[in-house]
Amino acid sequence: MRTIPVIDISAARRGSGGDRGVARAVSGACEEVGFFQVTGHDISAALVEDLFRATRRFFAMPTPVKATVAQPAPDQVRGWAPVGSESITFSLDEESPADLKEKFDIGPEVGLGEGWADGTPEHAPNRWPALPGFREVWVRAYRAFAETNLALTRAAAQGLGVSPEAMAARFDREISMLRALYYPSQPEPPLPGQLRAGVHSDYGAFTLSVAEPRPGALQVLDSGGEWVDVPVIPGAVVVMVGDLWTEWTDHRWPATLHRVVNPRRDVAWDSDRLAVAFYAHPNAEEPVDVLPELAGDASGWPDAPTAAEHLREKYLRQTSVGSPHDPSRR
């Protein structure tokens, strides 16, 4: 079993590439392990506390109230979705029962008149509940996670021998998302094979997450095929490699397979859990293909999908089978 690396990225938070030691540590963890935790980031403990407090207030609201900000369509990942709305393992073309989680998503707050925000699903407006202070803390959190992702992206690029600023520029009109994942208690036993979140890899570049230290938590699959519990380290942020880095590096960096398991019924069936994840996605038009600096003599994929197309296809797959959006249920 591997020990999950913990990397202090404070030296990489400013400038174009940051400290070379951070770059080596980040790129090494991405290539050899696929996941790690970071300290020295932009996401303060006070902000996480405020974010969790506001978000628990939202999930405690009656279902009809939460439904007023429900996700409008499978490819418009904004707002609330109930338990059973996703079966995330379908994104790997594998069947499983629906995930035992609720969620709430936002994207970037795009200003009026910005021409690149063209009304596509990836630029859909955020849906805000009528809770005092909720929007403000979520916007602050989005910015802090986005800044941390940029520091990691620059460090990762430097470790690969790619221009850190050119890599960061791929995110200057990002379609990233900040998501709350609420895993309710389980008074009824789950179905066979049903988890809080089924086995999957994430669809973007890096995923950054924080969570409450409660039973029924995140596990990652290491290179030896063993499931590893991810500990909640106070002040640290979990980082996982997503599909885009795998493609950009020509599969040098494997996307992290992970899942969220159920709490043990004999000791913690009544334990709920809250996590927040930032899914870093670049500008919508960025190709999902090997980075030119790493391609060598390879010609690339002539019909490579864009980041927006890749994201849309994955979300349609995971939310359209057995969900409220499934056409067969209409």
Task: Please give a structural write-up.
The chain has helices at 20-32, 45-59, 63-66, 134-160, 164-169, 243-248, 265-268, 292-295, 307-319, and strands at residues 6-8, 35-39, 79-81, 102-106, 177-183, 197-200, 206-211, 218-221, 227-229, 237-241, 258-260, 273-279. 28% of the residues lie in helices and 17% in strands. It is of the alpha+beta class. Strands 1-2-10-7-12-5-4-3 form an eight-stranded mixed beta sheet. The protein contains nine helices and twelve strands. The longest helix has 27 residues, at 134-160. The protein has a single domain (6-329), classed as B-lactam Antibiotic, Isopenicillin N Synthase, Chain (Jelly Rolls, Sandwich). The chain is globular.
Query: Helical element count?
Result: 9
Distance between the termini: 47 Å
CATH superfamily heading: B-lactam Antibiotic, Isopenicillin N Synthase, Chain
Structural class category: alpha+beta
Unreliable stretches (pLDDT < 50, length at least 5) are 321-330
Radius of gyration: 19 Å
Total number of beta strands: 12
CATH topology term: Jelly Rolls
> What kind of sheet is the major sheet?
8 strands, mixed
Helices and strands, in order, run as EHEHHEEHHEEEEEEHEHEHH
* Strand fraction: 15-25%
Tally of domains: 1
* Helicity level: 25-40%
CATH class: Mainly Beta
Quickly give the CATH architecture: Sandwich
Average of per-residue pLDDT values: 87
Cross-sheet strand order for the largest sheet: 1-2-10-7-12-5-4-3
